[in-house]
Amino acid sequence: MRPLRDIKRFVGCAEVHSIPKVNKAVLDGLMKEFATTRSDASLRAGRNIWSSVVHSPLAQATAVAALIVIGTLVVVSRTPRESTRRPPVAETLSVADMLTVGRLNAACRRGGLPEVERQCEQAAQKLQNRPERISMEQLIREMKGT
Amino acid sequence: MNVDRSIEGPLPVLEDRILVLRLRRGSAKALGRIYEKYRDDLLRLAVSLSNDGPTAEDIVHDVFASFTRQAGQFRLTGSLKGYLATCIANRARNVNRAWLTRRVAPLDEAAETTSESWRPDQWVVWTEELHQVAGALALLPHEQREAVTLHLQGGMRFRKIAEFQRVPLKTALSRYHGGLQKLRTLLNGEVTECDR
Fold first, then answer.
1. Structural domains of chain B, ranges and CATH numbers in brackets
2. Interface contacts A/B by beta carbons within 8 Å
3. Total-model pTM
4. Contact state of A33 with B65 under an 8 Å Cβ cutoff
5. Spatial distance between the Cα atoms of B44 and B57, rounded to a whole number of angstroms
6. Using CA atoms, how far apart are residues B63 and B113, in angstroms rounded to an integer?
7. Which residues does residue A16 pair with via DSSP β-bridges, in sequence order?
8. pLDDT tens per residue across span A8-24
């Protein structure tokens, strides 16, 4: 009886021959299928990106956050700022308050001596409007600026 | 016997990895190279497992077509030849099962099991040795035939064969040795010297 080594060799080296024409035909078919698969895959990839963005919870949360930020920015940009419509100092303060050292110092820091002069002029204008006779109550009210 | 001996050297495996990477990037040349490299080995394996020319041709064609379709997502974890050999063995197993079913199923149901893919006219030319080997292998139980062909013709390690057959390593080894002993009896006197 033949040794096992020979049997292994015999089974291992039993060859098959393929017909070259058919080999080429099969390969051509595979190449066509490969090209079709590639084009389908690229189309699917485009759809998949959109689908994954739409269905991803992270993407949804990001979209909601972006909408909130945009909405907030729109609202803020349409609302006039508090500082822009702040009334001038002369409208809110009494004459006495306008001429305190602190207010004059603040005016000096804001605009230098011209601002100090302007504030003094505003105080003087307020004083010029007063009637010839004034009661004590009116005087106190005027000093308080109410 | 060294069970884990390497059947494929490092260079072919490296080449296969490069080919698969190129294939995933859409290289048709890589597909052509893989086809040329493994076509004959897979045909031989399919012939040995099915002992039928047209069936073997269908199996190999289906495996290559399926491989081509999933080329974009394919990830090579082991040897490419081993992977393709496993695909061939799986298909051969399915075909054999379908054939057994067809023998008892009504004709209208049997039509569903036939392949719808394109088939070449005749692809394989059988050599005398292949006739003898495939004929002898056909007389073995399917599990033994798988173990012998996957190891000797598919170049698979016994560990992989055991995984494929979902049996312990020892069972795969005993199937292989049992099959080889039967082949020894069947092929005694017909074995000729081969060059390899």
1. 10-187 (1.10.1740.10)
2. 119
3. 0.61
4. yes
5. 10
6. 16
7. B126
8. 888 888 888 888 888 88
